[in-house]
Amino acid sequence: MDVIGSIFLLLLSSPLIGICGLLVRLQDGGPAIHRRRVIGKAGEFDALKLRTMRSDADEVLARDPLLRKLFEINFKLKDDPRITPLGRLLRRTSLDELPQLWNVLKGEMSLVGPRMISPQELARYGDAAWIFGALKPGLTGYWQVEGRHGVSYEERVAMDWSYVENWSLLNDVKILCKTPWRVLRGMGAF
User: Fold this and answer.
1) To the nearest whole number, what is the mean pLDDT of the chain?
2) Among 104, 106, 109, 86, CA closest to 96
């Protein structure tokens, strides 16, 4: 399902990925693709995303202790000053995630699974860290369609745990069916 689905969706979305990538490059000359180091079932890998932040985003975070402290709470900032105007649109519509279809095709991710996390976040999962060895992270998942950024980090961990413990093909199909509606409504996206 992952291979067939990712091939179909890549063929369908390639023109859109190309146009969005060109717009990202034109905004500031920086790279169109951002590689985010994440934890997968087989170890760490680079998840691909359209770049939504300024080219100097890491330096901005490093220079601002308050911003860095807020970031470390949920590994996300609601009003992140590093995000470009185009990046806000890409995130709100989840178009920035489309390059991850390549990660799905390569077998590093699944269409549906627990939310990908960075190596720095793994400690926040505590006793639930085992789930990243159980299933591949998903392009979408239970947290993305039922909570997204409207829940606390602890609730997110519980949602990922529940998803893995109750995994079924039927649940994955339900999540896949809910995803376009949630994306179109921009629920919890920032």
Assistant:
1) 90
2) 86
Question: d(Cα 6, Cα 49) in Å, to the nearest integer?
Answer: 15
Can you tell me the distance from the alpha carbon of 156 to that of 159, in angstroms, rounded to the nearest whole number? Answer: 5
The domain locations on the chain are 2-185
- The confidence score (pLDDT) of residue 130 equals 93
**Extended beta strands in 30-169, E state:** 33-40, 43-50, 110-112, 138-140
Quote the CA–CA distance of 52 and 47 in Å, as a whole number: 14
| Cα–Cα distance measured from residue 142 to residue 157, given in angstroms and rounded to the nearest whole number | 11
Residue type, 109: M
Please say whether the beta carbons of 109 and 100 come within 8 A. yes
Q: Which residue has the tokens 């932040």?
A: 53
Residues with Cβ within 8 Å of residue 115, at least 6 apart in sequence:
137, 138, 141, 143, 144, 156, 160
> 73 pLDDT band (50/70/90 cuts)?
confident
190 has pLDDT over 70: no
Q: Are 109 and 40 a contacting pair, CB within 8 Å?
A: yes
Q: For residues 95 and 9, what is the distance between their CA atoms, to the nearest angstrom?
A: 12
**Cα 78-82-83 angle, rounded to 5 deg:** 70
Residue 172 CB neighbour total at 10 angstroms:
20
